[in-house]
Amino acid sequence: MMPYSEDHIALAAEYALGTLDADERAQVETMMSVDKDFAAIVDAWEDKLSVLNQMVGSVEPRAEVWDKIKEAVGHSEPQAPLVLPQAPPVVVPEVKEPAEVVDTSNVIRLSAQARRWRNVASFTTAIAAALVAMIAVGVYQPDLLPDSVRPKPRVQVVEVRTPAVSAASSAQYVAVLQKEGGAPAFILTVDGATKNFTVRKVGAAPEPGKSFELWLISDKLQRPRSLGVIGGGDFTARPVLSSYDNDTINTATYAVTVEQAGGSPDGNPHSAPVFTGKLIEAVPPAAPSPAR
Questions:
Q1: For the whole model, what pTM was predicted?
Q2: What's the sign of the alpha-carbon dihedral 129, 131, 133, 136?
């Protein structure tokens, strides 16, 4: 393909737009007849601009509109014979020295080139705006578009998987803290998944100026570990068991001592255990749900 200048490309675009005068159209058609590559450029522009024709339907004017047009241009009645005015006498100008001739060919050529590219830019902007409008209509109101350019609906199947429930998440353990052979004083409940525990006061009578403190006693530990002071309300909840493994929690002995107000000051029990108990499984673990 031979190289073409910007003027040739702009000329092809204007031919496709239909904005050339008769002489320029004849020039383009002559070039198309002898140059197949140039004709291909014109066809490419016509393909790019054909999207505008798809968006605009043909409209036939009403009969009265044609009558008004004929009346405006003077065709509603038979035309009068054309009479040319008499030509004025020819005056021979006085011969003077030739003035300096200014070459305006470049100015004319640049003006035509600027006009041509201005027209191309204007129509290109219109095409871009039309495409943006088509995209917006296709997203929000696709039913307004013709069937040929309407986007096809997409069906997407989403598979939802439900995670399996672990066995430990539903296991619950309970210990009844009491004196040997006596009535229950506290009930200790431990959640197997979170390792949080709750102490419920049942029959323990508080002593003035003293506090009940809960301890974990295990062969795996060198000394009893404090689980905190039991509050004055009916329920006391703590998350402190999370630092121990499940075997230690399930096999340990839980004891309650009477300490000074606020609990042991040094982390060691200062009295013998008053109430003790061990955990038993109160709610069995549920079977894991199959994944979907």
A1: 0.42
A2: negative
What confidence tens digit (pLDDT) does each residue in 39-92 have? Answer: 999 999 888 877 666 665 566 667 777 777 777 776 555 555 555 556 566 565
Half-sphere exposure of 172 (CA within 13 A, CB side): 9
Exposure string of 259-285, with b = 16+ CB inside 10 Å and e = fewer, is: beeebbeeeebeeebbbbbebeeeeeb
Amino acid, res. 160:
V
Q: Dmax of the chain from CA atoms?
A: 147
φ and ψ of 150, to 5 deg = -75, 130
Q: Between helices 36-55 and 22-34, what is the axis angle to 10°?
A: 120
> What 3-state DSSP class applies to 285?
coil
Q: What is the CB neighbour count within 10 angstroms for residue 248?
A: 16
Q: What 3-state DSSP class applies to 65? A: helix
